[in-house]
Amino acid sequence: MLSRTDDVGSPLVITGSSVLTGSVFHDIVVQNHGSLHIYGNLRGNLTIEPTASVVVEGFVDGKVTNKGGRLVVNSNEGIAEFVTLAGPPEIEAGGVLGINLSAIALNWGALAKQTLGECAAVVRANAYGCGIDLVAAALAKSGCKTFFVSDLAEARCVRKAAPKSTIYVLSGLYPGTGPMFAEIGAQPVVSSHIEMAEWDAFATSSQWTGGFALHVSTGTDRLGIAFEEAAAFAPRIHSANCGITLLLSDLDNREKPDQRANDRRIERFKELRRLYPSIPASIAESSSIFSCPQAHFDLVRSGPLLFGVNPTPGASNPMLPVIQLQARIVQVRNLASGDTIDDIGWVAKRRTRLAMVSIGYADGYPRSGNSGSNKLQAVVAGQRCPVVGNASIDLLSIDITDLPDSRPARRGEMVTLIGAEISIDDLAAFAQSTASELLINLGSRFHRIYHAG
Fold first, then answer.
1. Using CA atoms, how far apart are residues 250 and 265, in angstroms rounded to an integer?
2. Phi/psi of residue 85, nearest 5 degrees
3. Residue 319: strand, helix, or coil
4. Angle 380-386-388 (CA atoms, 0-180°, nearest 5)?
5. Please, which of 51, 69, 125, 221 could form a disulfide with 217 given CB 3.0 to 4.6 Å?
6. d(Cα 341, Cα 338) in Å, to the nearest integer?
7. Which residues of 57-87 are buried (b: 16+ CB within 10 A; e: fewer)?
8. 3-state secondary structure (DSSP) of residue 377
9. What is the pLDDT of residues 182-199, one digit of tens each?
10. Per-position DSSP letters for 394-408, written without gaps between them
């Protein structure tokens, strides 16, 4: 538990078990029986009571007064293993985004146990905004062998992070890109007979044997070779180097999937698979890993679930949380009833205290979502507080009037937008959006902390 004494600039007091990420500039006192784990550097002074315990995965620059407790400082090696920083320095950034690489790896491990086949990782869109290079490296070290990416640029990142992996490029084969696939050692996901013809021409002229995934439409998909065309192509598997390394299709994976439609897709896919008996098959993505075990086949493709998105809406989330997003209070304003803030379209209906926070839609925070019963919220001083009005380009207004103690809500303090109290799924529901969209849109202006544990 964290608390603060009354004076401005007074130390943080740890009375229970706490974790802090990023550089900590405050002085800290860890009281008896308290424990603190810092994933970053401690710039302030540290006092440790006799039965307290402190672990710092970084450097300690301030004065340490150890009255008989336990202190472990993993400088140099600790930073390399547990902490990687990205983006602007914390002191210059309006917000801090923490990404738990261990949780991503553990989520993949949990998903891999759900299927008898292989569990691949879909890390497209820069690993859903989380950073494809570090995410792919963490997953590869945990045993993931197959990755799906958006394009060749992402394939290069994954190849560097996971040199021995199999990489499929979902955007397919652009004209003239065959040599790049061969250079990277990646395979396109082919969705048309034109792509297949171009790939065959390249493979013949270059003697490249890398192969491709054949994407088949089993419903009304935007991409994919028609079922009848795929059936007609089946005899090619009997030729030398047929080129097809994976038979791939999709289920209806919207928020409310049509189970009858999915059952029909699975049956059609089974029919097609009988024509391709020697080729591994994959149709299950993300939530269908849990909801459709009959769709697992040889390989499942895990995507947003790796980053803590709930695969079972309406039930408890079996995935570990990955993201923590905090932003800084830049000003606190007191308003009288009837006062208006024009740029966010909001009028105070009572005497109100607002915290202005340095995050907005330029950072990927949803601009609106305050219609109906769903309300955007933030956690200030451990309590949920409502967001008022619309987010501007880089500013958010939070109503802190009902805080029992408003002293922690001061200029320079952090509020939590995503974390233990408000999950990425909660924020998506408040914003009437999807967790995947929110993840992908998280901006580059945050100070990012990649940590393990």
1. 8
2. -105, 145
3. coil
4. 120
5. 221
6. 10
7. bbbbebeeeeeebebebbeeebbeebbbbeb
8. strand
9. 999 999 999 998 999 999
10. S-EEEE-TT-S--TT
pLDDT of res. 83? 62
Model pLDDT for residues 2-21, shown as the tens digit of each residue: 444 334 357 889 887 787 86
Residues 393, 357: contact at Cβ < 8 Å?
no
**52 neighbors 33 (Cβ within 8 angstroms):** yes
Cβ of 315: how many Cβ atoms within 10 Å?
Answer: 9
| CA 114 – CA 187 distance, rounded (Å) | 26
Q: Report yes or no: 99 and 414 within 8 Å, Cβ to Cβ.
A: no
For 18, the token pair is 């706490």
Query: Using CA atoms, how far apart are residues 300 and 286, in angstroms rounded to an integer?
Result: 8
Instruction: Single out the residue of 229, 289, 283, 288 nearest to residue 258, CA to CA.
Output: 288
317-333 pLDDT, tens digit per residue, is: 999 999 999 999 999 99
- Max distance between CA atoms of the chain, in angstroms, equals 79
Distance CA 323, CA 308 (A): 8
Q: Averaging pLDDT over each range in 19-23, 168-172, 345-349, which range is the top one?
A: 168-172
CB-count burial class (<10 Å; 0-12, 13-18, 19+) for 451 = buried
CB within 8 A of 254, min separation 6: which ones? Answer: none
Task: Return the structure tokens found at 440.
Answer: 């992908």
pTM exceeding the 0.85 threshold for the entire prediction: no
CB 196 within 8 A of CB 236: no
Tell me which residue has tokens 């990425």: 424
Instruction: Tell me: pLDDT of 407 over 80.
Output: no
Residue 390 in tokens: 């619309």
Alpha-carbon separation of residue 379 from 239, 330, 394 (angstroms): 61, 16, 18
**Listed range (31-35, 275-279, 311-315) with the worst mean pLDDT:** 311-315
Task: Output the six-digit token pair for 45.
Answer: 């002074």
Amino acid, res. 59? F
